[in-house]
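Need tokens for this chain, all 567 residues.
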Amino acid sequence: MRNITLTIVRRFHVGVLIAVCGTISSLATAAALRGEPGSVISTPPDMTYFAQQGDTLSSIAKKFTDKTPNWKILSKRNHIEDERAIPVGTPICIPLELLPEEQSEARIIALAGTPGLITSNGNEQLLAIGMILKEGAQIRTGKNGFLTLTLPDESRISIPSNSQLTLSKLRKTKFTSSPRTQLSLSEGKVESRVSSLASNKGRFEVSSPLAIAGVRGTHFRVGVSENATANEVLEGGVAVGMESTAKQAKDLLLPAGKGNIISASGVGQPVDLLPPPVLDSANVVQTRPTLQFSAQASANAAAYRVQIARDAQAIDILMENRFKDNRFKFDGLDDGNYYLRATAIDKAGLEGLPTIQAFTLKARPEPPFTIQPKNKLRSDKVDFVWTESNNAHSYHLQVAKDHQFQELVLDRNDLKEVQYSSNDIALGDYFWRIATVIEKNGRLDQGPYSDPQSFAKLPAQAAASFAESEGKEISFNWIGEAGQKFLIQIAKDPEFKAIYLSKELTEAQLQIPRPDAGQYYIRVKATDPDGYIGKFSATQKITINARWVSSDGQALTTSSGVVRTGF
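Here are the structure tokens for all 567 residues:
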């Protein structure tokens, strides 16, 4: 009979205790909560301990709360009047707030620049990935410094550039590791992604000189300026209030998508955060070392905060800057895959909701500089010339009829020199570009193309025509266009070292006194109205024959024509 009574009592206690702990609500499911005597499990808002032989509420209170008088709280919580009559295996609910605290820690998981730890003598110790920080650590990121910490419950704290933060409280409860975290922000900004604290009754607070923000699990930012504190909630909810009235911080709850400003004059009302900026999708592939991005302009945005990170969550931040307009530039990244994170900042200084865009940087090996042709040319042959690139294995030249290089007329990826000539390009309008190819890791690696250069291939300059004359002068004519200027040269040698005449003209013709008999060479070069100077025409060889002349210089003639000397 005693055994039956004991069984009934045990079932009664288990049923009541489970209902009180709030995890199982009926006797039918009470049996599901079982544990090895002496073990503990988490049953928020409590920890459940399974009694073992010899346990009393006093001994349990001393063991788990460090304070023997807490047995009275356990007695009320578990509806146990006789604290010494505890059967083995009985689940005992211990409120989490009674558990003592122990030191916790934060680990550095991402870092850029040279953030430092301020030591007790005011010096700075450089931080590194993997380092463990304890309570009281003072962190200063400085210019272009970034730091991300992770806590044991996987909460993450990101500290951007020009910020100073103290880990004022970094603890957790014994047995359940319920976090007890407080950050003190004295300068700059901090962004926190806090794991849910609702089930373990953890606490996470960010305080500033003017305000305090408390959460139970959320994603939010706190920023400090000279006269105010800005709170911005991205997920969940944040209770905010003035530091002087911290106990009343829950008077204002900021939900997701809201922010407010707290100043010496009071707690500002919640306002909508600006929506995520809309980024230009054309920037997802960057082919130049200077990265360029743009967003759709917003009339409500006073500025933009832009970060570059290795990951989509923007935990491992590499670069950050604030821009007044909707165009953003960065320098100094190696080729690779990255993420751009951008937010719009309103006129009050509140930072809006973020947008994330993945992008690829492939800017190396950098393309050569193009030299010629540019704009237009007048020649039967087209000469392509570019600068030499370091470590180039070869070059890839493309010529097309369109700016998108869909209609290729020339495609050579095996050029070893820094120039290439083609006689196969017809008259017309074209675009050309050049890329560098190097050997990398045993394979050929082509970099991006140069910016497209346009050119028009026009008819080559026609040679000057010459006809023998019976008079004291000779004439030359050639084809020209309206507005052109010309340079005509006559020489006694095909290399034009012995110049007989060099004259600039505005007409496509020349008349000069008849030169002495002999062999001459002539060529013409035109300058277009837009300043383009073409190449010399093909060299023409002419012969000036010797002849008999009268005293006035006129050629002597017979019925057969001019009387020549036989030259």
